[in-house]
From TrEMBL, chain A:
Residues 369-381 have a biased composition (Basic and acidic residues). It comes from Penicillium ucsense. PANTHER family: BUB3-INTERACTING AND GLEBS MOTIF-CONTAINING PROTEIN ZNF207, ZINC FINGER PROTEIN 207. It is found in: Nucleus. This is Zinc finger C2H2 type and BED type domain-containing protein. CDD domains: SUF4-like (cd20908). Residues 41-69 form the C2H2-type domain. Keywords: Metal-binding, Nucleus, Zinc, Zinc-finger. Its main location: nucleus.
UniProtKB/TrEMBL annotation, chain B:
SMART domains: WD40. Gene3D superfamilies: YVTN repeat-like/Quinoprotein amine dehydrogenase. It comes from Penicillium ucsense. WD repeats lie at residues 100-130, 268-302. Keywords: Repeat, WD repeat. The keyword tRNA processing does not apply. Pfam families: WD40 (PF00400). This is Mitotic checkpoint protein. InterPro entries: WD40/YVTN_repeat-like_dom_sf, WD40_repeat_dom_sf, WD40_rpt. The lineage of its organism: Eukaryota, Fungi, Dikarya, Ascomycota, Pezizomycotina.
Amino acid sequence: MGKKRRGPTLDELLARPWCYYCERDFDDLKILTLHQKAKHFKCERCHRKLNTAGGLSVHMSQVHKEQLTEIENALPNRSGLDVEIFGMEGVPEDVLQAHNQRVATQYHQSEAERQAVTGNPPAGSGGSGPAHKKPKLEDLSDIKARLAAHRAKRAEGATGGSSREMTPIGTGQSTSTPTNSNAQPAASISPAPQQQPPVAQTYPQPYGAPPIPAASPYSLASPVYPALSPAAVSPYAPPSAGTPVAYAAAPPGAVPYPPPGYPSHVYPAQPTTIPPGSPSGSYPLPTVPTPDPNNQVRPGSLPALSGLPQRPSFAAPALNMQQMQQMHMGHPAPSSTSPEHANGDATQAPSHVASSVDELISSAAKEAAASEKPTKKEKSKNIRMVYSDENISPEEKMAKLPRYAFSRKAFQQETALGEVPGSIVVGTIRDQDTVVDPAQ
Amino acid sequence: MSSNQYTLASPPTDAISALKFSPDPNSTRLVVSSWDKNVYLYDLRDENGAVGEGKLLQTFEHRAPVLDVCFGENENEIYTAGLDWDVRKIDLNTAEQTVLSSHEAGVRSVVYSREHNLVISGSWDSTLHVHRPDAGANTQSVPATIPLPSKPFSLSLTATKLVVAMASRALHIYDLKGLALLTAQADGDTVEGNRVELEPWQRRESSLKFMTRCVACMPDDAGYASSSIEGRVAVEWFDPSPESQARKYAFKCHRQTAEDGVDVVYPVNALAFHPVFGTFASGGGDGVVALWDGISKRRIRQYQKYPSSVAALGFSGNGKYLAIAISPGFEDGKEDISDGVVRIMVKELGETEAKAKGAK
């Protein structure tokens, strides 16, 4: 039972002692009484802490000759003196009920929110647990099967097929592949010396090996792909198209192309004692891809079945894939753990397993989004302003009421105020007269 | 809890528009202006000087509802502003009323600067009138008229500055010294149409997104607080330096969550700074009065809800009393006001009741 325990249960929450006056809850009764003494039963004049409201009342009247009228720091409806509270004692039944109700609703609400966000089943609900677990178990075997099928299909389809499957850009890719393959050797021959500084920097670094002649990484790289492609086509086909583009077009562009991943794929599989000078021939490249199909499955779910050293070699292509895609298509590959998901979605109708997983994820996301949006809306909606006129102040509104209507003219006649400019006043007075008359 | 609270006898018969204590520390007088066309003068002390229940000393009838009132040079002099477009001076001893000037619309607010001996009134005709009451004695003084971009809703001043909160969320801060100089000059220049274009010391836009309801300046002349119809209070500083401006903030208050989860937002009708501690009180349409520490950004306390809207608040000159004017229908102009709902509560504050507790 390695299950992480999160949050208190409802029962625990309900059992917590809480303060009648301010509805705060506490870890235990002792702290509650201390809180009440400090916050609610403290004498304002001499800071003496009394035990109860009654005690404080007596103290106030005897010592300070004052009448205690309300409890300090209390909620507006709880500040009365009529209830004698000590700790949890004396809390009226209806208030207690209301509190429990409130705690319970709060608990359920937060629970529901959390569920919506995490997509987890409600804690301890046995019914839905297995329902969720089963498809997950199916996932594994299905993924394996699907992967195998997919791989076979890919192998058949070779590079052209794969690029067609990937995206609409596929056409552009397929056309670019030949040119790239052309460019690659070209790069290794003539432009290489020019580009050497940047390239050499990006390349040798990850190797961690003694400095290699700039030509060697290229000659290394190019054989690697063809050698890999027949066996582990799918993940590598796009890279083979991609690498040259990155290198030939923009040397700095090579930076996102993960140097650590790329070479690590080739090298860690190899004994590190390779003489830097000997390039392609010595690599037992066909052997490298063979563990790959197995490895491909592994990251998806199975954690540590085989030897550790090979894991990085496989994690690298997965990274490559995503970043390649990002480079080529302008959007990141779906961030699912195994590349198969992305491929599966793009190539064939997703199997029910994949879809069920996807649905789970998307529905959880939707729920989360849905639960978030209304709360945001509620926040803006659920405010009701008592006075919402932005331009006319309450006083001005009141002044317009007939009973407050004031006619300056009428008073002018009585009190004979001479200096008021006539024209302006006359205009307004007519208005006011019409208002006043119906009132009269 | 500990504060003694009592209701002043013989309150106004209609909604209260303003309530002011005499700024004199030894005075316990307060004036209240009302929509029932009267200004009420109360004193918390009885004839023997003992502070008791407080009693009504006098009423001063006006021609129209009175919208604002303030004390003048001493506790025997008040200025009033009202719907009859007039700004008046009333001598409390003789009950003599003098019209200082007439606006071209209802006069919303009037303030008096003791330091510069100026009476400034703001009217819905979008002007300020700046009066020099001492000059008014010898000549037929015409007040300087300062045009404003919008209707002023609230005025507040410190020893050196005047803050005018207007419609369209505009806010002007004037330097009182310049204002005094300019009006003194202008007074000599022309007799009629004494219109003065005065560039404010600072033009600001309200930090609040909704209509400004009230503005109140800190007693230490450092800044001001403003409130809006949307349950919010902003605290800002005069100092235009970026450091000081970075200190400004706003917070929500005077809101209630109804049963259906709707947040009911009340306008914050009144703000008043404590003259000694520099804390401030806010009163809202929800009938709640809360004390805030503007420096440490904490609420000091919140008092029990009153049955209707808090229309005005005032601390006494020595800061020992807080008067709360309660009247319904201030926001929506409710038709009838039944007896007993318009009330003036006076709280006798404990030694440290309104004192900032300091940051924890």
